[in-house]
Amino acid sequence: MGNETILYYVFEETITGCKSSVKKHFWQKIKPRSFVMEDEDISVVIVMIPTNDKGWSRKKLLDIMNVGIAEYVDNLRTAKVVMHPGIQEILGQQEIASTVFWALADKLFMDKFSYPSGNKCQVPESVVLLMGNSFFPEEQIERFTDMIQPYFPRINHLTIMHEMDDDAEISVERWQEAIDDFAETLYYEYGLVVDVNRSGGYAKQGIYIDYGYQGSLPYAMMRAGGVYIDVLSFGEKEQRIKKKCSKISYLSPMKYLDTMVKSGYDKLVN
Question: Would the pTM count as exceeding 0.90?
């Protein structure tokens, strides 16, 4: 298997486009369909959960998930687990597979904006960082910097948006300090002035990198040709963005993973 192994639990209907229901008796063991696919240095073990018309109980779903990985168990010792939101909801889990999503977001960015060898740069001059509360601000800034750093000399506008929450575990002062330090560093090293919590926007194409932002989306800043990378893959954001700004390209690790897996499944059955 590849360098990075992902164990992906997903409803069968999501991959095949066809509803596959089971109506077996409780004493019969259900073995979900599964397959493995490779994509460059990533291996994905896909376990497809069938639909139960009456709905799965948490215990039964866990049993099915364990049965589904039995034949791959030796290859999954270091695998990162990703669950489709519907499965996660049944299990009552809110944890985000952050390391997987960070890596896939980096891949999406590099595929879209590979750094050129010539003088022209594909990254729009306007970049918006939308920060959320799921990770420490320092971690989000570090991940963002790793992704964008080669392009900083070419960026003219950088906006940071974050909804300060007085009830959050991380203090407003810590958020403010992390953002201020980052802005100061960018100004010192690149002469780049950072706008913080700007509600308006520039009438230019832009790239928006969202790490779980919970405030109102900056529709006024969005222009045709822009790219929105939703790192934590909140599906409802895609619907809202497409409704308000239909010519924005929406990318997310979950959407990328589903597309990649569907393509692998189609090749397998054909």
Answer: no
